[in-house]
């Protein structure tokens, strides 16, 4: 049995994923993609950074675009805690696990703890972020795919069993997972805090690398609208996979690539997972409907391409099991 | 300021609304409505009861239809706690508030605490319910409006300020509310535990009575399909209000009446509310877009009709403020 | 039997409705409504006129906004013939019916015959109009309700039997109609040339007046998007009726008013009517599902408000039958 | 210039495609597919035939399933004429082209002329077919993908230029076409009578063979529902290509295979083509967005698999140009 029992009383309370800071080569090029195509709203911008939020979010940012000489890398993934005290508890916790911790200054955020996970993924935790006026009923502002909120991260891990054990220990609960039938090891797992299928998922592969960051949209028709828009505005080559229905999570999805190669998923229609006794759903790696309920295999790039984290050394996975790949 | 500060550390942890037991006059008539029209799935049935669940639920039931000589009344509203211990803490809590408590036998549920709120609404709390196999990917079973899960309760209260204070004390957090501009009293409020706009809402009026129970569906098109189906299968008179977009909650909605007059809302597209520092949104009672963003007023029946709770005495409200009612 | 047999071999071949010229008080105000809200594309504009087309149209215009000191009147309704010869045949035909005819200069149109129907509605017929490049796959241009094409006209007539007889004689075929059960006279009728439910419809009332002009959109969700947009950009009072499913035509609809009171219908999902032996569907005036399949009655304004045609004298109808009107 | 000028005054008036007779091995197996998955309604059935219609059709049948010892072949493609006289004119016409003609008995049809096109595709023409009661507002009958009407045929032709010339001569008008840039020959063409993008299309390849028959559905969401249903009821291997947006026609599509290998397209959202002066749209064979606007290539089977017509000899095409095929 490869899935750890959920830790219902973790040392500190993380309520949800919050934001990601992406390193990009050209802010103007990225701005166009993230506002016209993805439809995110600019909260603030400077010569070096653009802060963006989705339509129902009141926190200041869910994406930070950072001009960088390491474009196509990820600076940090952010999470929000339930309370201010949880930050101190988190510091104690990560130290006890031998992880580096420091308090960092982040614009628009209160006290922010920077640390990293067992694979070296840079993580930051905060409780307070500047709150903005609601815009979810300002329909004239909706653009592109009409994103409502950031939904989840997905990362390549060179050892998914280890990654899942690490996050499970501080309260992430597994909702679905893929097991390699021969080795009985995990090939992928989806873990949540906020009551959806996941805040964080791991996929076997050269890691740690970000596989994708996902945004929630109202309906599958918004995804079809996005495809029509991208196809006729010069972004047809940025479409990587989909649209389709995931077997895992049952969500409707599309994967696209931003101008620096960061993969973005557009996602809707998964299910509620707040029950602490929710039984994880197991999938076999060789089940063709695991990736796409409708049977279409993912392309090779989807299994191989990812964007590295700043300062995190990448290792090959020792799990050689192979998924079904499109010819 | 009429809204109490949220109690982030309540005496016990309620994770979500769970189910409602509705008294009906004829099980066959109700079964047809709840399965063919609403599309709920029968988990079990006998001469006296039918247990139903929605498509993504794994708990045994979200609706119990109970044959009764008091049809058109509500037996009890059910909630799930985070842990087994929370039931004992709840018992202590409700006793301390002077509410009656007892442990009751409920088929398919573990230990169940029966109590009532300050207005007399019968409430039951449990932690364990029989878990069933997932059916959310058995698409051949989807019928009617394709309900995914129970979403919330809405009750008339003769004193919304008192109701909100009572639920706030055990951890329900206000997301939106309507204030009567003259008296500065609450006319309505929406309160959540599970991370959506509400698990429970209160509306000013003769109470306590159930105003409605709501089910979540995938998209607005499912609601349009339902209207077409009801209109052409003998249920056109069971359509009460909608479809429309709520100002409050921003959800897309439809209100219908079951064969015994219990009001059902079909609901989708509200927003995520897990942030503990989420600012409640205030609406004025005289704002015509409060009820329906598109400006259409609700009919008189919507403000007056409700179904009583078994054993709860109904009182008139002393707040005379009047909403906008369709001519 | 109030419906004339269709004339399958009319004297000239009209292929479809084409355009309408609306008199408005302020071009800038109207431009904003027709481009931002309706989403029509400007083909050309001057100090006195704005020419607009919908997204799949290649003809130069389907709406002409004309600055006028008679704002809120309709200048003319336009139709396209199958061939150039049909214009001459039309001239002969209308003269034989005692209607005035003249050849007029219309920018972007070839030879154009101006005449009027038996009630005085100004009609113009042309065969050639400037053709523009396709834009239906330029998805970045889609805005507002994303209109694809003009779909139909609807006019008040003081004698629907007479109007139907007149249009039937030159080839318009009735698809659905409403009969007053007592007088056995027509209360309303829908007539087509192009293979949909109608190019032209008539409703009993003070006439002739334009009741509305309708635009076809892709799906009901575009109509919901429009309602959200209008509600939050200052146009909430321009929403008159809907959304709903028509009993007649089975189309999904919304009625809105432009800044000068011209009524616009947003319309989708009717059915194909190319069969010459298609049986007209009869509805009773007292059938509550005739107007809206879901049972909601239309408001009084919908039966009383219309916009007059320039130069056409308005008469009361002598058919006193009354439809179902919302309280 | 490979496209012939449209013949606006053909010798006889065909109004639309009407039906197809498909040879199948097992009626029960096919019935399940065509009613539960496609959602067609049975008009009549016997030991040898099943007659089916779509939801808005009032003609008796659009599909005939015929039990046969040549399963996976097509018996005949049917078309409806404007008038009874058109049948006699058609007889004269096809004889003048050297095609065989005979008058055949067809249940539920009036006089029926059997002939074949220049490649040997068996065609039948009729004017009268039994008319059935409307069911488009009997929403309880809607099932599967909720098909509204038959939309078009698509056939492999060994010489698309010749096929287009043949159909053009009796009034089919080209709306879009694909040219091989080197040979300047047609690789594919779409031709209509009824005012949509096509009643009949031809694709270069071993022919004549039926490539597919298509059904019109209300919205892209019905196609997504179908995919979910097929994927979870044993039909995942019957999904061949899609969903996607066609470059050509701009329609949203899905291709599936019936139990005998007949290809079915589910189709919606093309555009109106009634203008006689509609300019055909030209596409280059090497344009990757021709097949799918979103850039995904069709699989090899889509270019190679088809079902033969009874009695029609199949030849290889002499046009060697190759489209873009998925790896
Ligand atoms: Ca191109
Ligand atoms: Fe994902
Ligand atoms: Fe509600
Ligand atoms: Fe209309
Ligand atoms: Fe096709």
TrEMBL record, chains A, B, C, D:
EC number assigned by the record: 1.13.11.39
PANTHER family cross-referenced by the UniProt entry: GLYOXALASE FAMILY PROTEIN (PTHR21366), GLYOXALASE-LIKE DOMAIN-CONTAINING PROTEIN (PTHR21366:SF27)
Record-level Gene Ontology MF annotations: biphenyl-2,3-diol 1,2-dioxygenase activity; ferrous iron binding; lactoylglutathione lyase activity
Keyword Protein transport found: no
Cofactor: Fe(2+)
InterPro entries noted in UniProt: DHPA_dOase_Mn/Fe, Glyas_Bleomycin-R_OHBP_Dase, Glyas_Fos-R_dOase_dom, Glyoxalase_1_CS, GlyoxalaseI/FosfomycinResist, VOC_core, Xdiol_ring_cleave_dOase_1/2
Keywords in alphabetical order: Aromatic hydrocarbons catabolism, Dioxygenase, Iron, Metal-binding, Oxidoreductase
Domain (VOC) ranges: 16-128, 149-269
Name of this protein: Manganese-dependent 2,3-dihydroxybiphenyl 1,2-dioxygenase
Top EC class, one word: oxidoreductase
Domain of life: Bacteria
Organism, scientific name: Falsiruegeria litorea R37
Coiled coil (residue ranges): none
Similarity field: Belongs to the extradiol ring-cleavage dioxygenase family.
PROSITE patterns attached to this UniProt entry: EXTRADIOL_DIOXYGENAS (PS00082), GLYOXALASE_I_1 (PS00934), VOC (PS51819)
